[in-house]
Specification:
Protein name: POC1 centriolar protein homolog A
Strand order of the largest sheet: 1-28-27-26
Number of helices: 2
InterPro entries: WD40/YVTN_repeat-like_dom_sf, WD40_PAC1, WD40_repeat_CS, WD40_repeat_dom_sf, WD40_rpt, WDR55/POC1
Number of domains: 2
CATH superfamily of the largest domain: YVTN repeat-like/Quinoprotein amine dehydrogenase
Radius of gyration: 22 Å
Largest sheet: 4 strands, antiparallel
Shape: globular
Number of strands: 28
Organism: Platysteira castanea
Strand content: 35-45%
Family: Belongs to the WD repeat POC1 family.
Function: May play an important role in centriole assembly and/or stability and ciliogenesis.
CATH topology of the largest domain: Methylamine Dehydrogenase, Chain H
CATH architecture of the largest domain: 7 Propeller
Helix content: 10-25%
Length: about 400
């Protein structure tokens, strides 16, 4: 079956800038130029939450791995961490000296990476939002920054036409990819962590093998690429472009698989759900759309075999040779037969319990941070009142 439009959400009052599914697919977050963060329920007839806090456009949103927090970055130079309940409480911190373009949690949920028009990439702790370090070799706005799946690397994309790869431990730039002919709008890691893909204003999508720092595949489109997302299998990539289309690329065969029309005006953002069954898109038409992937599981159940070609969208041959990212996918049932049903159930139960505990810790930490912020505000008001009282007494004395 072809991908199909499942639902569309209306509620934003300006262009949608970013979308992200919660890990359990029950919620979808979106940011907009209207300065609001929206949390949409995937259950029919459930009302959406509009979170108010940012003073300017919300340009990026991302769910934490536990799904209990959403990070958002804004043109107001701040990052907010929201608890995704009806109250919509958040902690806020001034992350940069200019617009925040990108926020992304590490896979363990402990760190947050942000990117900004102040030309820096910064890394923070999620708990208490403590600043850890800054990466500052870009010479223009940084549009996007992402952690690798294992958290050891960071990739960033910039208006200086480069994609930079950083080592999180040494905080050094390992490599700069300079093949783009325009601003690089979006970059992301392949699920294996061995490849990266980037798209930009030169209407291309490029894939590199970061172990050998070489270009694997190159797709030439007809319009600015604003956003992209890897399918969890690693075999497909979806892009959102200014020509209002979403395109699904088959990375195994190095070809364009689908062109999807739905948005009126530029498609600004796109993201697969964590299991790959759905993907969401947002556009300048103020709409959020949810699509069913409909990929056959057999299409991505095996190890990707090296391909001896890599063609571009327009049919010419790309500079890439093979896409062999060392991809090992879901184990087959025969591989799992060594474990008993009881063992599998115990492991699942333990995993669920741990995820629940981590989620509760996230919420507790955020609640403490919110209370701390309120206490600080109360202290400031008390100081102000005391100072005013002292001034009144002094004036009376004089």
């Amino acid at each position: 079956e072809d991908p199909s439009l499942e639902r569309h959400f209306k509620g934003h009052r300006d262009a949608v800038t970013s979308v992200d599914f919660s890990p359990n697919k029950k919620q979808l977050a979106s940011g907009s130029m209207d300065s609001y963060l929206m949390i949409w329920s995937m259950k029919p007839q459930m009302r959406a939450y509009r979170f108010v806090g940012h003073k300017d456009a919300v340009l990026c949103v991302h769910f934490s791995p536990s799904g209990h927090l959403v990070a958002s970055g804004s043109r107001d130079k701040t990052v907010r961490l929201w608890i995704t309940n009806a109250k919509g409480e958040s902690t806020v911190f001034k992350a940069h000296t200019a617009t925040v373009r990108s926020v992304h949690f590490s896979s363990d949920g402990q760190s947050l990476v942000t990117a900004s028009d102040d030309k820096t990439v910064k890394v923070w702790t999620v708990h208490r939002q403590k600043f850890l370090f800054s990466l500052s070799q870009h010479i223009n706005w940084v549009r996007c920054a992402r952690f690798s799946p294992d958290g050891r690397l960071i990739v960033s994309a910039s208006d200086d036409k480069t994609v930079k790869l950083w080592d999180k431990t040494s905080r050094e730039c390992i490599h700069s990819f300079c093949e783009h002919g325009g601003f690089v709008n979006h970059v992301d890691f392949h699920p294996t962590g061995n490849c990266i893909a980037a798209g930009g204003t030169d209407s291309t999508v490029k894939l590199w093998d970061i172990r050998m720092n070489r270009l694997l595949q190159h797709y030439q489109g007809n319009s600015v690429v604003n956003s992209l997302s890897f399918h969890p299998s690693g075999n497909y990539l979806v892009t959102a472009s200014n020509d209002s289309t979403l395109k699904i690329l088959d990375l195994l065969e190095g070809r364009l698989l689908y062109t999807l029309h739905g948005h009126q005006g530029p498609a600004t953002c796109v993201a697969f759900s964590r299991d790959g069954d759905l993907f969401a898109s947002g556009g300048s038409d103020e709409q959020v759309m949810v699509w069913k992937t409909n990929f056959d599981a057999a299409d991505y159940g095996n190890v990707v075999k090296p391909q001896k070609y890599g063609s571009t969208v327009d049919g010419t041959h790309g500079t890439g040779s093979e896409i062999d990212c060392g991809i090992h996918h879901k184990k087959t049932k025969t591989q799992d037969s060594g474990r008993t049903h009881e063992q599998q159930e115990e492991e699942t139960s333990l995993t669920n319990t741990l995820e629940h505990i981590m989620g509760q810790l996230d919420v507790l930490t955020q609640t403490v941070s919110i209370l701390e912020q309120r206490l600080t505000l109360t202290e400031d008001k008390l100081k102000e009142c005391l100072e005013n009282q002292q001034k009144i007494i002094q004036n009376k004395t004089n």
